[in-house]
Structures are given as structure tokens and as C-alpha cells.
Amino acid sequence: ILLFGGSIGLFAAVAAGFYLANRSLIPIRRSLEKQQQFVSDASHELRTPLAVIQAHTELLLRHPDHTIEQDSKHISNVLQEARRMSKLVGGLLTLARTDSNQLELERKPVQFDRIVQESVNKMQMLAEVKDIILHTEIDSPIPMEADEERLHQLLVTVLDNAVKYTPEGGVVRIICNKLAHSVQLEVEDTGVGIAPDDLPHVFDRFYRGDKARTRQEGGTGLGLAIAKWIVERHGGRIRLESKPLIGTRVYISLPL
Ligand code: ADP
């Protein structure tokens, strides 16, 4: 009986050990699956511009007698896809570094209002081409401790989206309020908006609402994923509200 009881005890202990070991492996397995998904999505995204470049180059080689003017459509397509790839690779490198905790913020005293204004100025030309008005209401001064380069990247991503997804003649309003302990930034556009089904996914890597439109606009689907990382690393929050065909509003709150 003693021997039998002992065997059962040993069996139970081994089973419990297996169960606990298996459970503790779940987060590692999930993270590995996420990494595999990331690599597979990244390869897929890189494959499309590569295939387009290959096709246009093959067409160019088929007509060595053509002048540059005659081939300008193919050449500008190759350039456009190469630019997209370069943007994609930049975004992928940033995300790979955030995943492996190799990317740290370089905080120093900055003026947030100046960063917002500089980013708006950068977008001015792009907006003018589409006859879009950039309307600003920015409190000043807004001193804070932050990573200036990353905040520029955040602002340019959000403003670029607002201009990209707003048709000609629209308006983008940039409102920045300094509160007691935080700064609240709103970027509101009169653009195409986001479908309710797409809205919960816009911060996902590679997620693009209207594939055809975002591709035509040179989108990578990585902008908001990186923007979220930047905001959260600064201890802030970012969210989007949107109505299809009416527009989108991005709210960013950062602690001072
Ligand atoms: P992308 O490079 O495709 O713009 P993002 O990560 O910046 O990628 O955005 C993800 C998706 O969210 C976009 O493809 C687009 O469908 C949607 N989106 C983001 N900002 C806006 C906006 N201001 N208006 C409409 N759609 C937007």
C-alpha cells in the first residue's frame, strides 16, 4: 500500500511539474509566435514593392532603344516603390529595436509647442499642394522633459496621416492645450474617416484600412504602431475617433 501510495504521489508531483512548466512557457511561446508573425508580415510587405520594381525593370530592359522620356513612367514607378521600401525598412528597424528594448528615449528639456509648430511647418508644403488649410491653436510656452526627435516623428506621423487621408480643399485643425500636469493635443481632419470595423486595429502593425488608398498614398501601416510606442514610453495616451466621410480626430495626452 505504501509503495502504491508513494507512486501515486510521485506521479501527481511529476504531472503538476509538467503542468506548471507548460504554463510558465505560455508567455514565451506567445512572444515567439508574435515575432514569427512580425517576420512573416514584414517579408510579405517587402515582397510587393520588390515585385513591382522587378516588373518595371524588366520592361525597361526589353526596350533598350527607348529614351528616358519614353520610359519615365516605369522609372518613376521604380523610384516610388524604392522610397516605399526605404520607409518600410526604417519602420521595421525601429519596431525591431523597440521589441528588443534597444530603443530608449533620450529625454531632455524641450518646448513642446515649438516641436508642434515645427512639425506643422514641415507639413505646410504637402498641405498646400492639396489646398488643405492647417489651422493651429497652440498654447505657449509648454516646457517638458522629452525625446525631441521621437516627438517630431510622432507629430509628423499624425499630421501626415491627416493630410494624406483628407481630400483636396479640406481642413486640418491642430489644437494644443497646456493643462496643470499634462499637455493635450488634438489633430482633427475633414478626411475620409475610418470604418468602425477598422478603428480598433489602426495601431496594429501593418494594418491599413483601405488597402488600395493607403498603398496609393505610400502608407506602410507602421506609422501609428510606432506613434503609440512613442506616446506610451513618454507615459502618455493616444486614441482615435473617426466618422467615415466626415473625418478623424486624434487625441494625444502627455505628462509634463
Ligand atoms: P499608413 O502608413 O498606412 O498610413 P498608419 O499606421 O499611420 O499606416 O495608419 C494605419 C491606418 O489607419 C491607415 O492605413 C488608415 O487606414 C488609417 N488612418 C490613420 N490615420 C487616419 C486619418 N487621419 N484618416 C483616415 N484614416 C486614417
Total count of helical runs of at least 4 residues: 6
Percent helix: 55-70%
What is the approximate shape?
extended
Structural class: alpha+beta
Q: What integer value in Å does the Rg equal?
A: 24 Å
Give the bound compounds.
Answer: adenosine-5'-diphosphate
Rounded average pLDDT: 91
The beta-strand count equals 7
**Which strand order spans the largest sheet, edge to edge or round the barrel?**
2-4-5-7-6
β-sheet strand percentage: 15-25%
Order of helices and strands: HHEHEEHEEHHEE
Q: Largest sheet, described in full?
A: 5 strands, mixed
Query: Unreliable stretches, pLDDT < 50, 5 or more residues?
Result: none
What is the rounded distance between the termini?
70 Å
Polypeptide structure, described:
It contains 6 helices and 7 strands. Helices cover 55% and strands 18% of the residues. The mean pLDDT is 91. With 256 residues, it is an alpha+beta fold. The protein is extended, with a radius of gyration of 24 Å. A hairpin with a 3-residue loop joins strand 6 and strand 7. It has a 5-stranded mixed beta sheet, covered by helices on one side. Strands 1-3 form a two-stranded antiparallel ribbon. The chain starts with a helix and ends with a strand. It binds adenosine-5'-diphosphate. The site of adenosine-5'-diphosphate has 23 residues, from helix 4 and helix 6. This is histidine kinase. One of its GO terms (molecular function) is kinase activity. It catalyses: ATP + protein L-histidine = ADP + protein N-phospho-L-histidine. Keywords: ATP-binding, Kinase, Membrane, Nucleotide-binding, Phosphoprotein, Transferase, Transmembrane, Transmembrane helix, Two-component regulatory system.
